[in-house]
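[User] Once you have settled down, look closely at the record that follows, and write a paragraph about the fold.
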Amino acid sequence: MFDYDTYPELERGTVSRDEMTIAPENNFTNVLVLRELESHAVFTTDGQSADLANVAVGSGDDRETYSPGLMFMRKQTGSDRRFGKSLQRDLLGTECTMQVNGMCQDCVECILYGSAASDDADKQLSVTSRVMYDTAYTLRDATAVIDEKFQNAPGDDYAKTAEATIREPDFFEPGTLFPSVVTLRDATPEELAFVLGITAKNKRYGAATSRLGRVKNHVLGVYTGSEEGPANLGLTRDVVTRLRDSDETGGDSIQDVITAAAHDPELVGDLLREAFDDRVDAERGGLDLERVPDETVDDLLEAATGDSLADVLETQLDASRAFLEQTD
């Protein structure tokens, strides 16, 4: 569906369907994403407190240590995997589960995202994921992006006695931004389209997603080459300093940026692209990556979010099954 004659720019960081091999190679495709919260969201590991880090940013006299909120990699990949399996179910009728030892190992999602050895005696293989996620960091300090909320649970009678309040889990505020990179290794163009479709269409992350966790994933660019791209932490630091230096923010210091009431997603997206491009093109220590033209990314996204996604998955399915058969 995405042959290299039509899209030669994809050849460098992907593999063709008939060249998939269980022996790892160094074909990397990096998808640059800005995750924007469109509602409150809960990202915790203990069920109560938001996950935080201590990060130094800036240099010289304008150097600060702040506490960004975190979206752990598991919060991203777990949601994306569930959505990917539901896409397959809708489009191909594939029955597969997120239960650790119950995955079918016979679908595009399992072969791409990985699966543990099955309970089935005939399927004692584990499949390593070829999609890599990294913890994402907020641009602003936890004091600016996280809110503690309390609720009363007094019952439904007209007359009630006083009741103790219940502390809700920490909520990330709407408008919070998370620079993020999703990296595929030794993936086919069809698998890339699948991941782009998941990224563009999945809109719920974190806990209690029937009521919270609405996210808009802005796909900002795709980069291919022989290595993984910059880490989320480095990109987040770069964007913070660029926001400080931008004429559009009105801030004069790192402190102004990390404590701001909000940041413009469009401006942050532009600065995030610039930060990634600068790290690729650095005179010393640059990365062996090239940006895929926006027109090609648009074609991939159109295929991934439109009616042709079923054809993309059908085309990839036989190759994914043949990939696993190499272990026989």
Observations:
- The mean pLDDT is 89.
